[in-house]
Design goal:
By secondary structure, the protein is α+β, with helices and mostly antiparallel strands. It is built from 3 helices and 4 strands; from the N terminus they run αβααβββ. It folds into 2 domains: 64 residues, no CATH class; 41 residues, no CATH class. Helix content is 22%, strand content 7%. A hairpin with a 2-residue loop joins strand 3 and strand 4. The longest helix is centred in the middle third of the chain and has 11 residues.
Length: 110
């Protein structure tokens, strides 16, 4: 993955925003998620490379590290998201229905 991120950030000019997605570490609901956390992703190293290659890039918070953008999933905070010192930049992540991918027979629209 690190090589692919390097390619994206060096081969296409200035990149303004990169959205990482993640899987939860095994210490958080291992019976459900069983995924990888920041250690497995080597998140600190990855974020350092991103910042070095694209100074000024906006990075979300899904490397299991604080980011420039908070990304709540499937809910929209009624009063925004506050951080120490003021209001945070955030992006709502929602599906149109119950599926992240195409599902021809899913008519459960929100």
């Amino acid at each position: 993955m690190t090589g692919q991120v390097r390619e994206l950030l060096t081969g296409f000019g200035k990149i303004a925003y990169i959205f990482f997605d993640f899987s939860y570490g095994s210490n958080l609901h291992p019976e459900i998620w069983g995924g990888k956390g920041r250690d497995a992703w080597r998140s600190e190293e990855l974020l350092g490379m991103v910042r070095e290659l694209q100074p000024g890039i906006v990075v979300n918070d899904r490397l299991d590290l604080p980011g420039d953008v908070t990304t709540p999933e499937q809910y929209q905070p009624a009063n925004g998201i506050s951080l120490t010192g003021g209001q945070a930049l955030w992006e709502a992540n929602h599906t149109f229905n119950g599926s992240w991918g195409y599902d021809r027979d899913n008519y459960d629209w929100k």
